Amino acid sequence: MSIPKNEKLKSEKCITQLFNEGSAITVFPLRLVFLETTFEAPVKVKVGVSVGKRKFKTAVDRNRIKRLIREAYRLNKGGYFNNITTQFAFMILYIGNEKPSYIQTETAMKQMLKKFVNKVTSKED
Question: What is the pTM for the complete model shown?
Answer without folding.
Answer: 0.92
